[in-house]
Design a protein that fits this description.
The complex is a heterodimer. Chain A is α+β, with helices and mostly antiparallel strands. Chain A has 4 helices and 3 strands; from the N terminus they run H-E-H-H-E-E-H. In chain A, strands 1-3-2 form a 3-stranded antiparallel β-sheet. Chain B folds into 4 domains: 73 residues, no CATH class; 221 residues, no CATH class; 310 residues, no CATH class; 210 residues, no CATH class. The longest helix of chain B has 40 residues. The chains are: A alpha+beta, B alpha+beta. Chains A and B meet through helix 2, helix 3 and strand 3 of A and helix 1 and helix 3 of B.
Chain lengths: 108, 907
């Protein structure tokens, strides 16, 4: 779904700054090894989010002495994530009602 | 080439290389972390590496897609494409140069014409809200416009018409020269007298000092400012060095003293299109302004401003009602009829005649046609090149370029070519405007150098983009549709795609032929017009005649007779110069537009004959007795003036044949008019007609002769009515020489200078030049169309040659095969020539139809030749046919000369 990837990335970054590899791994473990993020989508998405000012990046040293680019959530990104979550909940709600709802008696 | 490449590299590098390096590093880190994680889980280095790379996927693709997200990414792509386009065009220099030059010719001529059109038709007047300015003229019952209106009438309009906020009036004579005295000599200026509210009406205030004080209730200048003067910016700069101290200074114009009170802003001019720089004198009402009497009250031209929210129709309706009332105040029923109507026009519309507008639009159309021909020609070249580049483009496609990217690349190349073409074209525009400076000045009164301005440059940009689209869209579509795989296959001739393309190119060449034919027919018609004009019997000799315009401050001769004191001695001296056959004074040389003196007979009674005669408008000319020997026109009846006609002898006049006809209203023997008393030179002297001379062309070769009255200069004294009328207007001296006029010019100048230092810079011209200038609009149009038509012919021939040469080159193998199988060489030649003949006949047929329709637009230019003249059409058709066949001869010869062995071995 449109914008879902951005939402997932922003959500992941909410726990703290992370690099590309870290985001892939985090999403995989959190989804119970189901979601395997394509790097071909991840990096363009990260750069797009940075261009929009939702995340900012910094070069940092990891524990294993590897130099990596770490992304962190910017203020605008925080707000965007809140909006995204609201929209998502509403969507799930609506779709759920359609899928599980029973035809209500029409008030004739 | 290496320069361009390094430039493009550097540009891209500066912007993006650091970010690219960072991205690479980021990807490397990703993979390294993955490998480490896998090794921690127990995989070997090799296994981990392989798995990590596999999971990461296509590194290059990730990099490319990520690039795509960067902000200035399009700029980088553009730079890269541009650098590539430059390289490609640089590689085929011959092709690029011919395309650029072709486009330059088309764009340059269109741009030059647009500059003229912009200046003449689209310029914004240097006034506030010029669309609110209107000109008001009184008109006769039959619509004949009066030159001016008396103040009393003007006052009525301004008082009673609610649609008008301001009504200003002025007195301006285009041909009059005024002398602004300065320390060394006098500057020639024009000095219209203007009402006090004129500048306010135009909505322009002086940039320095103040305007005239307006007299309450009349709009004229208050008497306190009767000796104030306002300078134009030009005069202020050239004569007074742009000094502020000029305010309050006393200056003398035609001997009268004025005090400078203001300077108008730069670029302001009123009226527009004056040849001389301007100063404005105050128009103060006098006693005679309180009358409405023929030849008593002065008449003024009127310009008014519409009240906001009203339009010209409203003003027209109101003024019509008012004028009906005004006309009642005229006591004489015939004069009343002359002012019974009113004409209201937007001021902007009065500046350009309908004829000029049509002429300009026709020429603009012709230049647009040439541009189209150039584009068609280039498109054909581009198509040929697209075929040659099929493989290159296929390779690009195979390496991953999307169709859209390829189309983009081709469009960019087109834009680059057309941009270069436009730059060259701009140079061509400037050159053409320079070349036609004289014609533009005489035809459209453009007296300052004409340069493309901002709107023109904007137009040029539009034209550049349009050309780019026109020339590259077709090849681009072809490239987008092309199949990659067959194009890549070794040595496969692309027959299928090729044939459709040849048809397209043949169509283009046919279009080109048709358009060129149209232009050439236009050109031919105008050349025939010029020829016809040159061969009109003018009624006088023009060869070896010099005309000198003696502009002299006549106010210096106040109270004296200029003829006897200044002019006659000059004539006598010139007559004695060696090499001079005859010299004569005359108020205006025939066909010279500088002065226009008209004359109508006064009405003796209200008898029908007298009324009709009073409506004759005749050319009026004062001439010396030697005039006939200079111009050599024949007499029909009676005699010409001679030395015995003096101020003391019987006053005499001459008329021409056309006058006699108008006078009697029938085909009577012209001799009947001899002895009639037509007019009076002054109170005592009634002039008698002593001769009738043959009609001559007074205005132009195309205009039929008009009635004319001539008086003898020695008989005119300061007491004569015409004397003051001609004051300030240059007297002409016509000199007939034995040899070429140029040999005698220095001596003539010397005689003038000795007579009066003011005559030192008199203008000299020849009768031939004067006659030539009356062909002006046709000459200008013909010259322009010669250039347009010539270029079109050249492009057309080049187009035919290009296509056939290309076809022959592609079909070399086929020709070889045909010859090997026994075809005669003449058969092969015929094959090519047939193709040419087919294109030519289709193009010519189409072109004749097109020319038949479009040359209707030239009608106003043509003289003694119809717009669908069959001879011109036939001649142009033959010309194009010969040109086309000559162009196809070379390729045909090459086709016939194909060596079958070599052709077959080639592949």
């Amino acid at each position: 779904m449109q914008g879902t990837l951005a939402m997932l990335i922003l959500r992941t970054l909410q726990w703290g700054p992370s690099h590309g590899y870290g985001i892939v791994q985090a999403l995989r473990t959190q989804s119970g090894e189901i979601l395997q993020l394509e790097t071909g989508s991840l990096y363009p998405a990260l750069h797009r989010l940075e261009r929009r000012g939702w995340v900012s990046s910094d070069w940092k040293q990891t524990e294993s002495n590897q130099c990596a680019r770490c992304y962190s959530l910017a203020v605008a990104g925080r707000k965007e994530l809140r909006d995204d979550l609201d929209r998502w909940k509403q969507m799930v709600d609506v779709i759920g009602r359609i899928l599980h709802g029973e035809p209500e008696g029409g008030e004739a | 080439m290496s320069f361009w490449r390094s430039w493009g590299w550097w540009f891209g590098h500066g912007l993006f290389e650091r970010r690219k390096d960072e991205l690479d590093e980021e990807i490397r880190a990703h993979i390294a972390m993955d490998i480490q994680a896998r090794m921690e889980r127990g995989q070997s280095l090799k296994e981990a590496e392989a798995a990590a790379r596999l999971e990461f996927g296509n590194e290059g693709l990730v990099r490319d897609v990520t690039h795509g997200q960067w902000r200035w990414n399009w700029l980088e792509r553009l730079t890269r494409d541009l650098a590539y386009a430059i390289r490609v065009l640089h590689r085929s220099r011959g092709f690029s140069i011919s395309v650029i030059l072709t486009l330059a010719v088309g764009v340059g001529s269109a741009c030059a014409m647009f500059t003229v059109v912009d200046r003449v038709l689209l310029r914004s007047l240097p006034y506030k809200e010029p669309e609110k300015l209107i000109e008001i003229q009184e008109a006769g019952a039959k619509g004949a416009l009066q030159y001016g209106a008396p103040y009393l009438d003007i006052h009525q309009w301004s008082e009673r018409s609610p649609a008008l906020t301001q009504v200003a009036f002025f007195n301006y004579n285009r041909v009059r020269t005024y002398f602004l005295e300065e320390s060394n000599g006098a500057a020639h200026v024009n000095a219209p007298a203007v009402s006090g509210n004129l500048f306010a009406t135009l909505g322009v205030a002086p940039s320095l000092g103040r305007g005239f004080v307006v007299k309450k209730g009349s709009g004229a200048v208050d008497p306190q400012d009767a000796h104030a003067i306002i300078l134009s910016d030009t005069v202020w700069r050239t004569t007074y060095n742009a000094q502020d101290s000029v305010l309050g200074k006393t200056v003398r114009v035609n001997g009268e003293s004025y005090s400078v009170i203001g300077v108008m802003p730069r670029g302001f001019s009123f009226p527009l299109g004056t040849e001389l720089p301007l100063v404005w004198t105050p128009l103060v009402l006098g006693k005679t302004d309180a009358a409405r009497e023929h030849n008593v009250n002065p008449n003024y031209q009127v310009i008014a401003r519409l009240r906001p929210g009203t339009d010209i129709n409203q003003a027209n309706a109101e003024l019509k009602v008012i004028q009906a009332d005004v006309a009642k105040a005229y006591t004489d029923p015939y004069y009343r009829e002359d002012v019974s109507g009113i004409s209201v026009q937007h001021y902007g519309d009065t500046l350009v005649t309908d004829k000029t507008q049509k002429a300009l639009m026709a020429l603009l159309g012709a230049s647009a046609l040439l541009w189209l021909i150039a584009c068609v020609n280039v498109t054909s070249l581009m198509l040929a090149r697209a075929t040659a580049r099929q493989r290159e483009i296929a390779v690009r496609g195979a390496l991953g370029a999307s169709r859209w990217q390829i189309v983009q690349q081709l469009l960019l190349e087109g834009l680059l070519l057309s941009g270069c073409g436009s730059l060259c074209g701009l140079g061509l525009t400037v050159a053409m405007l320079k070349l036609f400076e004289h014609g533009l000045a005489t035809q459209f009164s453009i007296h300052e150098p004409l340069m493309p301005n901002l709107p023109v440059l904007a137009g040029l940009l539009g034209l550049t983009i349009a050309s780019a689209l026109l020339i590259s869209v077709w090849p681009a579509i072809g490239a987008a549709r092309a199949q990659i795989e067959p194009a890549l296959r070794q040595g496969a001739p692309q027959q299928g795609a090729g044939r459709a393309q040849h048809r397209t190119r043949a169509l283009l060449v046919i279009t080109e032929i048709a358009l060129s034919l149209t232009l050439l027919v236009g050109c031919g018609l105008l050349l025939r017009t010029i020829y016809a004009l040159r061969h009109v019997p003018l009624g006088f000799r023009t060869e070896h005649v010099i005309v000198a315009q003696m502009t002299i401050p006549s106010y210096k001769f106040a109270g004296r007779n200029m003829t006897t004191e200044l002019y006659q001695p000059i004539v006598d001296k010139v007559n004695h110069l060696p090499g001079v056959e005859a010299a004569s004074l005359l108020s205006q040389a025939p066909m010279d537009h500088t002065v226009n003196m008209e004359f109508s007979l006064g009405r003796a009674s209200n008898a029908a004959d007298d009324v009709r005669r009073s409506t004759i408008r005749a050319e009026f000319r004062a001439v010396g007795p030697e005039m006939q020997r200079v111009y050599g026109f024949p007499m029909v009846r009676g005699r010409f003036f001679n030395e015995q006609d003096t101020a003391t002898s019987q006053a005499v006049v001459l008329v021409n044949r056309a006058f006699v006809k108008a006078y009697y209203g029938d085909e009577r023997d012209p001799g009947a008019i001899l002895g009639e008393h037509l007019l009076s030179l002054d109170k005592q002297r009634h002039a008698q007609v002593v001769g009738v001379f043959e009609d001559e062309r007074q205005v132009s070769a195309a205009a039929p002769p008009r009635p004319e009255v001539e008086v003898c200069i020695p008989q005119i004294t300061p007491e004569t009515g015409f004397y003051t009328g001609a004051e300030g207007v240059a007297m002409d001296l016509a000199v007939r020489t034995e040899q070429s006029p140029s040999t005698i010019l220095p001596e003539l100048r010397e005689v003038m200078r000795k007579a009066s230092p003011d005559l030192a810079d008199s203008k000299f011209t020849t009768m031939d030049q004067i006659v030539e200038d009356t062909f002006g609009s046709q000459r200008l149009a013909a010259d322009l169309l010669e250039i347009f038509g010539g270029s079109a012919l050249f492009l057309c021939v080049a187009g035919i040659y290009g296509l056939l040469a290309y076809l022959v080159a592609r079909r070399t193998r086929e020709m070889g095969l045909r010859i090997a199988l026994g075809a005669q060489r003449s058969d092969v030649m015929g094959l090519v020539l047939r193709q040419a003949a087919w294109m030519l006949s289709a193009g010519l047929a189409l072109g004749l139809g097109l020319a038949y329709v479009t040359t209707q637009g030239l009608k106003t230019f043509l003289f003694e030749v119809k717009s669908n003249d069959p001879w011109t059409m036939a001649a142009v058709t033959v010309l194009l046919l010969i040109g086309g066949l000559a162009a196809s001869w070379l390729p045909a010869r090459r086709a016939a000369g194909v060596d079958p062995m070599q052709a077959l071995r080639a592949e």
